[in-house]
Amino acid sequence: MPNVQCQNSALYKLNRPANQLTTEQQALQEQVIQFCLANAHAEHATFLIQGAAGTGKSVILSSVFKVLQTLARQTPTSPLYGSQNVLLVNHPEMLKLYKSGTTTAPVLLKKDFQRPTTFINQAAKNHQLADIVLVDEAHLLLTKSDPYNHFNQTNQLDEIRRHSRITILIFDEQQVLKVKSFWQQQQLRQRIEAAPHQTAQLTHQFRMQAHPSVENWVQTFHQQQVAALPHDPHFEFKVFTDANELYQTIRFKNQTSGLARMLATYDFPATLNDGHDHFVETSTFKLRWDRYQPTAKTYWAEREDSIDEVGSVYTIQGFDLNYAGVIIGPSVTYDPQSERLVIHPEYYEDQAAFAGAAQLADPEAAKQQIILNSLYVLMSRARNGLYLYAVDPALQAKLLSL
Model-level pTM? Predict the structure, then answer.
């Protein structure tokens, strides 16, 4: 049995030994490997893995990649021996995590892990065709050009598939966070169905150590409905009347079990890379947003100083917490008459997330969906406890009444 420090380590969770995978995970890993063997000489074959937050998607991808690189580099009898394979991830903290895993796995090299734009631009410049490209969090791939991020083509998935024989994708449309990567199921399937393809759905919840009613409550909230709070003796679900009291509880939980952090919707002013701290503030609470530290070796949730910060959706996506304290800002309110959440994009401070919305069929609906997705990401981080505080009085009153 691993110790508590190991259990709290994102690197340990990502690089879980093969004998600790579930039967479902082992079966899916074998399915993906067999797909790669069968399509070793195909063009643009795609294996799509879908699943909600916490269903172990990155664990599967990491395990599959390790097997592929073992076949490519250490197994001369394999049809995949000598194959050129790469794993792409857009999230900088996740990229840092994947590269850290190379220290304990000799078959993996740091150059095996790249950002999508880096891979696309290098492959286009050198006219390269990779054999197998794995993409974690493919829902973050760009669906339009983005010169700011040095992507000048029209769709990152199209470019990745153009430069690979086989593409393995991890995808969850509930975690799309920007208009420039606004993916929907239909768009995705239209792209992959013209060539050899296979899909798999992960359903087992690994993160939330709770009764399914807890996950169902979060999913219902994501659909703008506020249901009665579930009761689970093994998962602490609590609404706080005071944001500072919530923070003090998070500090206590961090001392006793580790990995307890404050999170908030992007409803509080922040400017990246301006050299100043920015704060999440309520009537009783004031704490700085997470500081941008691209050179830090440790991931945000595992840094000691991050207990004195509030994490954003961009900081925490892809990672677990034991306890999450979530401040729901003014972009999310409650209407007692319709008994539904009301989303206000005008209050969302990350207006850059909406760039390009005017080109969509329903810009307002897309903006609201992005805010709901960001809230879903924040509320689906916790393993053992979720604490909530809402800035909107009506929403706060509704949550307390439950």
Answer: 0.91
